[in-house]
Amino acid sequence: MKFxxxxxxxxxxSAASRAKRNMPALEVTVLEKTQxxxxxxxxxxxxxxxxxxxxxxxxxxEARVFREKQGIDLRTGHEARSIDRAARTVSGTTSEGRxxxxxxxxxxxxxxxxxxxxxxxxxxxxxxxxxxSLEDGRSIKQWLSxxxxxxxxxxxxxxxxxxxxxxxxxxxxxxxxxxxxxxxxPWMNDQLAAVVRKxxxxxxxxxxxxxxxxxxxxxxxxxxxxxxxxxxxxxxILIAVGVRPNSEIAAKAGLALGPSRAISVxxxxxxxxxxxxxxxxxxxxxxxxxxxxxxxxxxxxANRGGWAVGDHVTGxxxxxxxxxxxxxxxxxxxQVARTGLNxxxxxxxxxxxxxxxxxxxxxxxxHSGNKTIWVHMTADKGSGRLLGAxxxxxxxxxxxxxxxxxxxxxxxxxxxFSQCDLAYAPPFGPVWDPLLTAANQLMRQL
Amino acid sequence: MKFxxxxxxxxxxSAASRAKRNMPALEVTVLEKTQxxxxxxxxxxxxxxxxxxxxxxxxxxEARVFREKQGIDLRTGHEARSIDRAARTVSGTTSEGRxxxxxxxxxxxxxxxxxxxxxxxxxxxxxxxxxxSLEDGRSIKQWLSxxxxxxxxxxxxxxxxxxxxxxxxxxxxxxxxxxxxxxxxPWMNDQLAAVVRKxxxxxxxxxxxxxxxxxxxxxxxxxxxxxxxxxxxxxxILIAVGVRPNSEIAAKAGLALGPSRAISVxxxxxxxxxxxxxxxxxxxxxxxxxxxxxxxxxxxxANRGGWAVGDHVTGxxxxxxxxxxxxxxxxxxxQVARTGLNxxxxxxxxxxxxxxxxxxxxxxxxHSGNKTIWVHMTADKGSGRLLGAxxxxxxxxxxxxxxxxxxxxxxxxxxxFSQCDLAYAPPFGPVWDPLLTAANQLMRQL
Lengths: 446, 446
Known about the structure:
2 copies of one chain form a homodimer. By secondary structure, chain A is an alpha/beta fold.
């Protein structure tokens, strides 16, 4: 049986490895348009911050290992362009311009996502860069090392933008960030978002809300992002307004698309064609809180989806529960985490949300080094069910959020969650964990 | 209505405050035999480590506040000695030797636990100290500040012993620990226990297993813990072999006792007498994994139990789910955490346990500062249900264990847990959280 995979990053290579391990006789071919496979894209902001670190440090497993040790037919420089579902073939072009057509019995589309480039005059010019692929990381690193970059402008304020503003500051670069919408971190409760904004501004970053860039102009070595009567200048411009799923090849083949035009998949990661799977940032997922499809392109789901496809292709049970939208990022001295729905999402999905924001502490009463942790929690007034949590703080946030994530997967009510026996020791938190304090207070509103 | 409470620490004062807030007209009286109320006992090792910190820093709320702001009749220096259930009275003696008898409509026994002093000749002499009450903390701190203490001997190796060996080392004191049993941290998986032992020994602590102390002898300023032909010397001896519930007053009154002679309580914290509650370290609890009673004297349960009693006494719903046995402690550079059952406990409670130990990492592939995290996980072969987890590592352990704790409360199978959407960012862990990696590997054995 021929198992063909389009895309050689997290989902694609996880599926390839898993399928080949499960069934060594399976012919597994991977088509990757770049020369890079299996790397930690999320690690790029930290790698770029360290001018001496090779970008290749982020490669998790080398192409050679997949080929020689695992027996996977890994073809880099192979860009898939179209799928013929009737003939069960994939056609494309190599980086040398040669055309190819390959047959499959089962196909996995793991094409990932690409940065969105907004419609701005001059956006496609040297020094205007985005960050998604390892090649993007190389480009940014080279740009920084080959010229004198004193200022950077970041278009967008999502988590990649925030991680990269820390990266630039660590390299001694002044940073301005701008975006058209007037709200900083709009998915976040406003009190928590204000804490993050204050941290970013305290680190000397210019935060410019409500500025819609109309053009990027060059003046010698300096680029100017023009917005109305003002302009922000830098020697590098980072475009970080978001990503979109690379689903064109699936759409062209007539496969069903879901939210945000991600490829629609069932719990076994099958598309609307039962011989074709999709996994990773190009595919959608079931959200365990809403029971509806959602598109949340994150690394764990990509890896998990790849494994599940590798299992299902080889005849093993592999149904996935879905996602809770759990995410964390670091920005300067803060950990910022979320899981589940925020208030507006809860309302949009038909819940009657109640919410609470609390300030708690990262260590016990009287323990030195104690810092503030903020928690936002949302629940449904009707059922009492926990719907989501958000946390911000300098310590004790990144892993704590997982307790709430497990509660969402388990469908716990706030009361049930409030009764969980969480760990306590003075160096690690108050007796009442901040999540429990939030749950205790939220119960009063239900 | 008269609500009488014996014991003024976590459970007692939580119940008093909650009941009074719920029902201001309630007459709430608290009998506390010492002069200290409402303090963070768990913080004492850290307070002792800092020679300049006042022990009183650990007081969460002062007696004055309970009396003047909350209207609680708080009587310190009042030791309850007996309960007359027929007459509904409690009798005792004040620190000045005056006898008292007080009536109650509802009674809460919140007498806590006391250190166990093993049968060793010479154990009751100056310089041989235990650590449970704030007064114990004062005594140890005074002893250390008033004389030249170069060496300490700790009898016992539980978490208080381990926390205190760090405390002594921080104060420049050499430490030897001994205990009769041949196994270091017997409740812990042996591979994880070996990691903890190595850390303790690396910090210069002498770990002496299989030594049964027979006598404590004094030679001038030095105390010698004698065991067979050997002796360990120090200017302070800490007795830390465990605690026992202060349940004598309940036993004398004919109330039912549970495991370890803790006072047996129902989900509403009622004893076998429906007018008498028990909460905190003197009371037992339902274990959510075994469905049986257990005695796990920890701070969160004490606080939660106090609140539940305060609610139930005032007519509010207050049933508690139970405990999962979740605990964490810090020893030098390690975080050590557990929740649920270990392999032996699982077998003893009739499960067919499978287990796995994995080594994972505290940060993502290629991220600087990456350290090893060890995870042990146990599940039931029959049902696939997750039964327990243990973790050791220098970071990312203390709060991660809570995800497993919530899974135990929710009765998740290992497979269900393995599918949870946990947070990922390179500074905080690998894409596959160490708990998920453990779950993935454990599933292969089910």
